[in-house]
């Protein structure tokens, strides 16, 4: 049984309480997936995009309230120019009309975190359109982390705070969070990283303070419903253990 360690009868709490409200995923391993198949790295990113679509569907079907996907980091600009160009063009491939219609019909709200101003205007327009067309939706919040870096996020928060406030003494953790890109979003309950790496790679540095971390060797293009349920199941076991202790 994937979602319950105990039968609902044995449980003294609502089983739905232990579904993670916010899952954040570091979608890693596209390059290795392609190389192992003798294909160019860009083919791995294309396959990764398909896996992203599947995971989004799986998450709204499982009634996850927030899903954050690390799609492009501030460090990723340092990759070879051909690869960067391909990665930067992916929103155009991803946000096709069918996907937008699907997201709208499933009540998904698309948002972006990161400094989008570095992307070409045509790509910024595509992201803005996805955001605008889904802004009235009230279901799952789907955050794409694009040109996102946890350090850059904290620095921009400090700068904006200093611009807007005279009194540094008033600054506390709750107030600081209002200056982060994620201001309207709870911290992730569960952070997943694929491909066998065990790093945060500048992802959600502030917000990950209390998150459960789960790592899998599965490469991102192979990440499927089974892998997602395994991650959620491990999360639930940890929470159940904490409750029973
Ligand atoms: C993740 O896959 C995608 C991005 C970082 C954009 P990688 O491209 O990092 O794949 P590996 O880690 O080299 O296999
Ligand atoms: C993390 O993966 C960034 C994304 C998944 C977008 P990377 O492959 O870029 O990170 P490092 O280089 O292994 O730290
Ligand atoms: Mg990688």
TrEMBL record:
<keyword id="KW-0479">Metal-binding</keyword>
<feature type="binding site">
    <location>
        <position position="28"/>
    </location>
    <ligand>
        <name>Mg(2+)</name>
    </ligand>
</feature>
<feature type="coiled-coil region">
    <location>
        <begin position="151"/>
        <end position="178"/>
    </location>
</feature>
<dbReference type="InterPro" id="IPR001441">
    <property type="entry name" value="UPP_synth-like"/>
</dbReference>
<protein>
    <recommendedName>
        <fullName>Isoprenyl transferase</fullName>
        <ecNumber>2.5.1.-</ecNumber>
    </recommendedName>
</protein>
<dbReference type="GO" id="GO:0030145">
    <property type="term" value="F:manganese ion binding"/>
</dbReference>
<dbReference type="GO" id="GO:0000287">
    <property type="term" value="F:magnesium ion binding"/>
</dbReference>
<feature type="binding site">
    <location>
        <position position="77"/>
    </location>
    <ligand>
        <name>substrate</name>
    </ligand>
</feature>
<comment type="subunit">
    <text>Homodimer.</text>
</comment>
<feature type="active site" description="Proton acceptor">
    <location>
        <position position="76"/>
    </location>
</feature>
<dbReference type="Pfam" id="PF01255">
    <property type="entry name" value="Prenyltransf"/>
</dbReference>
<keyword id="KW-0175">Coiled coil</keyword>
<comment type="function">
    <text>Catalyzes the condensation of isopentenyl diphosphate (IPP) with allylic pyrophosphates generating different type of terpenoids.</text>
</comment>
<keyword id="KW-0460">Magnesium</keyword>
<feature type="binding site">
    <location>
        <position position="41"/>
    </location>
    <ligand>
        <name>substrate</name>
    </ligand>
</feature>
<dbReference type="InterPro" id="IPR036424">
    <property type="entry name" value="UPP_synth-like_sf"/>
</dbReference>
<dbReference type="GO" id="GO:0016094">
    <property type="term" value="P:polyprenol biosynthetic process"/>
</dbReference>
<feature type="binding site">
    <location>
        <position position="33"/>
    </location>
    <ligand>
        <name>substrate</name>
    </ligand>
</feature>
<feature type="binding site">
    <location>
        <begin position="73"/>
        <end position="75"/>
    </location>
    <ligand>
        <name>substrate</name>
    </ligand>
</feature>
<feature type="active site">
    <location>
        <position position="28"/>
    </location>
</feature>
<dbReference type="InterPro" id="IPR018520">
    <property type="entry name" value="UPP_synth-like_CS"/>
</dbReference>
<dbReference type="GO" id="GO:0008834">
    <property type="term" value="F:ditrans,polycis-undecaprenyl-diphosphate synthase [(2E,6E)-farnesyl-diphosphate specific] activity"/>
</dbReference>
<keyword id="KW-0808">Transferase</keyword>
<feature type="binding site">
    <location>
        <position position="45"/>
    </location>
    <ligand>
        <name>substrate</name>
    </ligand>
</feature>
<feature type="binding site">
    <location>
        <begin position="29"/>
        <end position="32"/>
    </location>
    <ligand>
        <name>substrate</name>
    </ligand>
</feature>
<feature type="binding site">
    <location>
        <position position="79"/>
    </location>
    <ligand>
        <name>substrate</name>
    </ligand>
</feature>
<comment type="similarity">
    <text>Belongs to the UPP synthase family.</text>
</comment>
<feature type="binding site">
    <location>
        <begin position="199"/>
        <end position="201"/>
    </location>
    <ligand>
        <name>substrate</name>
    </ligand>
</feature>
<dbReference type="GO" id="GO:0005829">
    <property type="term" value="C:cytosol"/>
</dbReference>
<feature type="binding site">
    <location>
        <position position="193"/>
    </location>
    <ligand>
        <name>substrate</name>
    </ligand>
</feature>
<feature type="binding site">
    <location>
        <position position="212"/>
    </location>
    <ligand>
        <name>Mg(2+)</name>
    </ligand>
</feature>
């Amino acid at each position: 049984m994937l979602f319950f360690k105990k039968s609902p009868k044995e449980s003294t709490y609502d089983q739905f309480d232990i579904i993670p409200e916010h899952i954040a995923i570091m979608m890693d391993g596209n390059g290795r997936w392609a190389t192992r198949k003798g294909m160019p790295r860009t083919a791995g990113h294309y396959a990764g995009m398909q896996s992203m679509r599947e995971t989004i569907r799986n998450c709204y079907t499982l009634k996850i309230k927030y899903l954050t996907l690390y799609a492009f980091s501030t460090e990723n600009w340092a990759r070879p120019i051909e690869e960067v160009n391909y990665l930067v063009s992916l929103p155009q491939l991803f946000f096709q009309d069918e996907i937008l219609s699907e997201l709208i019909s499933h009540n998904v709200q698309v948002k972006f975190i990161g400094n989008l101003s570095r992307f070409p205007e045509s790509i910024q327009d595509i992201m803005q359109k996805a955001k605008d067309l889904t802004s009235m939706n009230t279901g799952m919040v789907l955050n794409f982390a694009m040109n996102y870096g946890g350090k850059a996020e904290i620095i921009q928060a400090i700068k904006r705070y200093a611009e807007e406030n005279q009194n540094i003494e008033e600054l506390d953790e709750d107030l600081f969070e209002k200056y982060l890109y994620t201001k309207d979003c709870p911290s992730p309950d569960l952070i997943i990283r694929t491909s066998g790496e065990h790093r945060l790679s500048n992802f959600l540095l502030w917000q990950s303070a209390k998150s459960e971390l789960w790592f899998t060797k599965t490469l991102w293009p192979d990440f499927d419903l089974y892998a997602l349920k395994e991650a959620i199941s491990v999360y639930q076991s940890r929470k159940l253990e904490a409750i029973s202790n």
